[in-house]
Design brief:
Elements (H helix, E strand, L loop, with lengths): L3 H10 L5 H13 L38 H40 L3 H24 L8 H23 L2 H27 L4 H4 L1 H24 L7 H25 L1 H6 L9 H21 L3 H4 L2 H13 L5 H21 L1 H9 L4 H4 L7
Helix pairs in contact: 1-2, 3-4, 4-5, 5-6, 6-8, 6-9, 8-9, 9-11, 11-13, 13-14
């Protein structure tokens, strides 16, 4: 629920009125009983017809709708149990009709957010399993792995689009976009492999492959930022789409960057071990710190959580250089990473203020407001 102050602050941030005018208008309007009417239930529907409907408060700029009450949790538990039973009894043949029936009831009619997310994930899992079953008998065992990947991802692009158009679930749109980027990257690798005559193109050309992965991650990040920047105050469904896209883009960007930096390890499959030397571990920590700063600037915590595994491995590598026993540095690693998470989580608004304040005004006007 937006407050009168948040609306006036938003108007000041958009340049409609000045900050002084916003401060003067607030007591003037409050004294005359001006209040904001809560949005109607239709405006909060996850499957509502419009893209500009309010779905998240300005006060919390990263608040995707998962749960609106324990009713959502109870229904979601029931959905999971029923779908597990249907999967066991009817296998693939019974899952799709059940997903459609439940989506019609729980999403189209009752507008339940958490069940919508779970049903989307079940639908995505069904597409994946159905693709594997269909390709198992149609592709030779020695078929090009990249061709297999493209054909596995293609049904996502074909089926997620109508699923989103019917139910307007932000996660479905995000999965559709991710599938398009994945298919494009797969087709590019497939074409390069066929043109060069090298079946294992990625291992033979690690530098080019890492660059392609990084470019694909950048495309995904750019699309996520486009949704973010189109809804600065994060009050529409576009913000939810950006949330899911950032969950995919953040780890993709991070590990594509690590692959670019450690090309040798990328080539021999030792990119993510905890045996790196001191310089390599410090580089990993620096890259993770940069990504955390990006997350603070754009107010997306996915950029913090995506680097936790790498931060933990780098910290373990640093602690291994000490004379501590293995069980000691393992728990010390957990302690350090946990403290980092808690510190950033508790002090998020303050750290974000430090990160955003030095930026030029032209950038700050496009970012979510400071709290």
């Amino acid at each position: 629920m937006q407050t009168l102050k948040s609306v006036l602050d938003g108007a000041a941030g958009e340049g409609i009125i000045s900050g002084d005018q916003a401060g003067a208008l607030l007591p003037y309007m409050q004294a005359r009983g001006v209040v904001l009417r809560p949005p109607s239930a239709a405006l909060g529907d996850i499957a509502g017809p419009g893209e500009a409907h309010v779905v998240a408060p300005v006060e919390d700029t990263e608040a995707p709708r998962f749960i609106r009450g324990f009713h959502d949790v109870l229904i979601t538990i029931g959905v999971c149990i029923v779908m597990a039973g249907i999967w066991g009894v009817g296998s693939l043949f019974g899952v799709l009709p059940a997903v459609i029936v439940l989506a019609e009831i729980l999403v189209r009619r009752q507008r339940l957010a958490l069940p919508a997310v779970v049903l989307t994930l079940i639908f995505a899992h069904w597409i994946f399993m159905a693709s594997i079953v269909m390709l198992e008998d149609r592709l030779a065992p020695d078929a090009d792995p990249m061709l297999h990947f493209v054909l596995t991802m293609a049904p996502f692009a074909l089926l997620m689009a109508p699923f989103y158009l019917r139910y307007r679930i932000p996660l479905a749109l995000s999965l559709w976009i991710v599938s398009l980027v994945a298919i494009a990257a797969g087709l590019l690798f497939l074409g390069l492999s066929r043109a060069s005559g090298q079946a294992d193109f990625i291992s033979v050309h690690p530098s080019l492959s890492a660059a392609i992965f990084f470019a694909g991650a950048l495309v995904l990040f750019a699309v996520a930022m486009r949704y973010d920047l189109s809804d600065r105050f994060r009050v529409t469904r576009r913000s939810d789409v950006a949330f899911w896209l950032h969950l995919a883009a953040a780890p993709a960007l991070l590990y594509a960057m690590l692959a670019l930096v450690f090309l040798g390890d990328f080539n021999n499959g030792a990119l993510f071990n905890a045996e790196k030397g001191l310089p390599d571990a410090l580089i990993v920590v620096a890259i993770v710190a940069v990504f955390m700063t990006i997350g603070l600037v754009i107010d997306r915590r996915a950029f913090v959580t995506s680097g936790l595994v790498s931060l933990g491995l780098a910290t373990a590598s640093l602690l291994q250089k000490t004379a501590a026993a293995p069980e000691t540095y393992v728990f010390a690693t957990l302690l350090i990473v946990g403290l980092v998470v808690l510190t950033i989580g508790v002090g998020w608004p303050h750290f974000r203020r430090f990160a955003v304040t030095p930026l030029p005004l032209i950038f700050k006007e496009k970012l979510p407001p400071l709290r």
